[in-house]
Design a protein that fits this description.
Two copies of one chain form a homodimer. The first copy, chain A, is elongated. By secondary structure, chain A is mainly alpha-helical. Chain A contains eight helices and four strands, in the order H-E-H-H-H-E-E-H-E-H-H-H. In chain A, a hairpin with a 5-residue loop joins strand 2 and strand 3 (about 65-70). The first copy, chain A, has helices spanning about 1-10, 20-25, 30, 40-50, 70-80, 95-100, 105-135, 150-175, and strands spanning about 15, 55-60, 65-70, 90. In chain A, helix 2 crosses helix 4 (about 40-50) and helix 7 packs antiparallel against helix 8. In chain A, about 30% of the residues are buried. Chain A has two domains: about 1-80, Winged helix-like DNA-binding domain superfamily/Winged helix DNA-binding domain (Arc Repressor Mutant, subunit A); about 95-175. Strand 4 of chain A pairs antiparallel with strand 4 (about 90) of chain B. The structure holds a DNA duplex.
Chain lengths: ~180, ~180
DNA sequence: CCGCGACCTGTCAACCTGGACATGTCCACG
DNA sequence: CGTGGACATGTCCAGGTTGACAGGTCGCGG
C-alpha cells in the first residue's frame, strides 16, 4: 500500500488538493517511482482522512479540498521511511527489457542498445541544464530544495544506464564484429 | 501485461517448467525488474499455450511440464522488445523512498542516506566478485553469457545509488554541519 | 456575455495481483 | 524402509489498479 505513503510524502511538502497530487504524479515521481491516477488518489485521500492521517485544511472554489498532514500522518510517514522491509515491490518494464536484451538476436540487441544509449543521452541533455539552474539559483546556506535530490537521482540513473548500454555494445561487438 | 513478456524472455534461454520460472523470479529479475509468484505463472503459461506462444515441450516426473517458445512466441517477444511505448509501467518502492527523503527531518534523512550507502556498498561487495568470476571463466570469443548484461546493470545501478547517497549527504551536510 | 479550456471531484466495472490454501511426488540419507 | 525436504502444479479470494463514465465550476479571451 505504497500509494498512501507517496501521498503522505507529497503532502509533507505542504497542503495540496487531489488535483494537485494527480498532477504531481504526472511528473518525475510518476515517471521513476510510482504511478497513480486521480481515480485512486481521491478515494485514498478519503480513507486517509478517515484514518486521521490527513485533514481537509481548507476548501476553495470549484469544490477544491486542500489536504494537510496531521501529526499522526507525519509519524506514519517517518515510520515507513525508516523501516525498510527485506524485499520491496518492484515492477519496472524498462528494466525488464534490459534484463531480456540477450534474448534477442545480436543485431536486434545492438540496435536496441543503441536506441537506449541515444535516449539516455537525450534525457541527460534535457535534465542537466534544469539541475544546473536549480543549483545556480539556490543559496547554499538554505536547505536543499525539495526535489533536488530526486532530480540528481534521475540524472545519475540515466548516466548509469547510458554507461551500461555503451559497455554492453562494446562487449557484444567483441563477439560479432561488424 | 508484462508478465507474459518476462516469461517469453526467460523461455528464450531454453525450455523451462513453471517451477523453474518461479525460481528465476526469486533471483535478479525479480529483485530488479519484475516480480511474480507461481500462482500467476502457472495460469499465465496456460493462457500462453492456448494463444500458441509456447508449447509443452516435454513432461517429466512429478507432473513436470517443460514449456518451449514457438516461432510465434519468439516473434511476439521481439515485437515487444523493439517497440517501446512512450510511457512504461514503473512501480518501485525503493525509488519512491528516495524521492521522499526530503520529507524527513534532516537528522532522519541523513541516517536513512547513510543506511542506503552502506547497503549499496554491501551489495556491491557481494556482486562484484561474482561478475569477475563470470568474466574470468568466459572465453571472449563466445557470446556474452546470458545474464551478464543484467548483472552489469545491477552493478552499475548500485554504484549509481551509492554515489547519489554520498552526494546527497554531502549536500545536506553543508546545510546543517555536525 | 458566451464559450472553451483548465480546474476539480467523484464512481464503477473489469481486470490484475499476492498470499493462503490445497495436493501430491520423487529421492537421498539415515 | 521411512521420512523430510525439495520438486511440482494448481485454485481461490480479498484487495489493489486502470480506464471509462459522469458531472459540475471558474476565468479569460474574443
Amino acid at each position: 500500500m505504497s500509494l498512501r505513503h507517496a501521498l503522505l510524502g507529497l503532502l509533507a511538502q505542504g497542503p495540496a488538493s487531489g488535483y494537485d497530487l494527480t498532477r504531481a504524479f504526472d511528473g518525475g515521481i510518476g515517471q521513476y517511482a510510482w504511478q497513480a491516477g486521480h481515480s485512486r488518489i481521491y478515494p485514498e485521500l478519503g480513507k486517509m482522512a478517515e484514518a486521521g492521517l490527513v485533514v481537509v485544511d481548507e476548501t476553495g472554489p470549484r469544490g477544491r479540498k486542500s489536504y494537510a498532514l496531521t501529526d499522526e500522518g507525519r509519524t506514519e510517514l517517518r515510520r515507513w521511511m525508516l523501516h525498510w522491509p527485506e524485499r520491496t515491490a518492484v515492477r519496472d518494464e524498462t528494466v525488464l527489457r534490459m534484463f531480456l536484451v540477450q534474448s534477442l538476436e545480436p543485431d536486434d540487441a545492438r540496435r536496441l542498445l543503441e536506441g537506449i544509449a541515444e535516449h539516455c543521452a537525450a534525457e541527460l541533455a534535457k535534465l542537466r541544464p534544469v539541475m544546473d539552474e536549480v543549483d545556480a539559483e539556490h543559496d547554499p546556506r538554505e536547505p536543499v530544495p525539495f526535489g533536488r535530490l530526486a532530480g540528481e537521482y534521475g540524472l545519475r540513473q540515466y548516466e548509469a544506464v547510458h554507461g551500461w548500454a555503451l559497455w554492453s555494445l562494446e562487449r557484444m561487438g567483441a563477439t560479432v564484429p561488424g
